[in-house]
Structure formats: C-alpha cells, structure tokens
C-alpha cells in the first residue's frame, strides 16, 4: 500500500478518483475506469473522509465523459497534435481515450502528484508526465509548439487565481499555432457555494476564479472563440439520484443557478494581425 498525504487543491484528486472507481463497479458504469478502481486498492487512504456524497460518483463520471467526448472529437479531427492534460491528478484519461501514434500527450501536475501517478499507472508510449505547477511558465517552454494543441483542464481553473488562469491561457495561445480548450468552470456565485462542498471542505481547498459567460472568457484574448458551453445540469441527469434531478429541473427556471457549473469548449486561431 502506498501512503498518500495530500492537502489543499492537491487532495481534491482523491474524491474524483474514488468516484470513478465506484462508477467502474456499477453494472451500469459510465466510464468503465477499472484503472481507477485498481489505484484505489493500492493507496492507503480512508475514502470515507474525502467528502463524497451519494450520487457524486455518477456526477463525477458524467463530468469526465463530457470532456472525454470533446477530446475524442478534437483528436479525430487532428490526428497529429499535442494534448496538455493540466492538473491531471490521478485521472486515467490518456488510457481511456487511447490516442493514436500522432498525438504527443503531456500530463501536468505538481511533482508529488506526478510521482504518485508513476507508482500507480504504467508508462504509455506518447505520454510524458511533467511535475510542475501549471502556473509555472517554465514547463511549457520545453514542449514544441509546432502542432495544434488540445488543452484539457478538469477541476482546475477554479483553484487558480484569476490572473494566474488568464496568464496560463495566454501562454498556451502564444506557444501553439491553433487549438482548443475543453474544461469546466464555476460562476462567481458557484465559487462562493463551493465553500459548502463537502469534498472541497474535506480537502481544505480554496476556490478562487469564477466566470459567468463565454463572452467573459473570450475577452481574455481576441484569438479565443467559444464553440459551445453546457450547464452541468444538462448532463445525463436520468442517471443521477432524485435530489440531483430535482435540482436540475429547478435550475432550468433560474438562470443564475443553471450557470453555477458549466463545461466550455473554446477554439483559438492566429489573430488577424498575426
């Protein structure tokens, strides 16, 4: 057994890992992420303390599937590209998606998280692990920027400060010729309500950055264009417990509630002047 001592935003990888593991054991599994289940068996953690509520495992799997599907669409259109999986945690996305030989995939997270990944998951051709804070500009300089890029950031941006997040996005825009970001985000109201989230409380994490619209994200840089956005309440809610489904129905009446958590897909191309 591997002992795990993580705190703050790093510890939020534990409930998401556990949620995917629980989903994998369901007869109606969404992700079939048996690698997550195997990882849970190998680490010494009391998962009853990570703040997972009934139904959260399904919500976690649905969230991951949404971004997996968007990533697969991009890779189908760009068989030769770079993938930056930012704040990868213990997510097995590269194994679930199984990209082709033309894809250079990079899993990026804090050094101690990357070290833990190395103990739990096998090496994979075409996938490189980078142990660094995503806000450190140095790691990106080591990656060739000659191909389109897909940036996947699940459960990341809300833990960055606004200036850190915007600087990270602009560095990617300046480094690659074109590409797409797929990620989830919280509204400003959503960041305040996250203080009541049991998983966030259990990790003693702090959320910072919230945004309320595609237009606000497009304002970060003129090269960004919002392709699509989807409320978390528009996921396959028939799979969720009654309480979740009732909340989803209420959210369709109240816009502020509907936009508490949103999935975004944003393209970027060279600027007209560039």
TrEMBL record:
DNA-binding found in the keyword field: no
InterPro entries cross-referenced by the UniProt entry: Ppm1/Ppm2/Tcmp, SAM-dependent_MTases_sf, TcmP-like
Domain of life: Bacteria
PANTHER family (alphabetical): S-ADENOSYL-L-METHIONINE-DEPENDENT METHYLTRANSFERASE YKTD-RELATED (PTHR43619), S-ADENOSYL-L-METHIONINE-DEPENDENT METHYLTRANSFERASES SUPERFAMILY PROTEIN (PTHR43619:SF2)
Molecular-function GO terms, alphabetical: methyltransferase activity
Gene Ontology biological process terms in this record: methylation
Keyword Transferase (UniProt): yes
Organism: Streptomyces buecherae
One Pfam family, short name: LCM
Keywords (A to Z) from UniProt: Methyltransferase, Transferase
Protein name according to UniProt: Class I SAM-dependent methyltransferase
């Amino acid at each position: 057994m591997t002992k795990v001592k993580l705190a703050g935003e790093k510890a939020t990888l534990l409930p998401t890992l556990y949620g995917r593991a629980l989903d994998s054991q369901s007869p109606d599994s969404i992700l079939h992420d048996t690698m997550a289940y195997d990882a849970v068996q190998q680490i010494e953690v009391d998962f009853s303390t990570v703040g997972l509520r009934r139904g959260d495992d399904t919500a976690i799997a649905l969230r991951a599937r949404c971004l997996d599907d968007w990533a697969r669409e991009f890779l189908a259109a760009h068989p030769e590209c770079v993938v930056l999986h930012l704040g990868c945690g213990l997510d097995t996305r590269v194994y679930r998606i199984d990209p082709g030989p033309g894809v250079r995939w990079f899993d990026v997270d804090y050094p101690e998280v990357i070290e833990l990944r190395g103990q739990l998951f096998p090496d994979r051709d075409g996938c490189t692990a980078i142990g660094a804070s995503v806000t450190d500009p140095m790691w990106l300089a080591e990656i060739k920027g000659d191909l389109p890029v897909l940036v996947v950031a699940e459960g990341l941006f809300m833990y960055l400060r606004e200036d850190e997040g915007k600087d990270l996005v602009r560095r990617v825009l300046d480094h690659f010729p074109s590409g797409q970001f797929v990620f989830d985000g919280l509204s400003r109201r959503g960041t305040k309500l996250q203080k009541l989230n049991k998983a966030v409380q259990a990790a003693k994490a702090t959320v910072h950055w919230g945004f309320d619209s595609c237009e606000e994200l497009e304002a970060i840089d003129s090269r960004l264009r919002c392709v699509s956005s989807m409320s978390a309440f528009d996921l396959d809610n028939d799979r969720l417990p009654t309480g979740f489904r009732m909340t989803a129905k209420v959210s369709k009446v109240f816009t502020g509630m509907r936009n508490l958590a949103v999935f975004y897909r944003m393209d970027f191309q060279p600027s007209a002047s560039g």
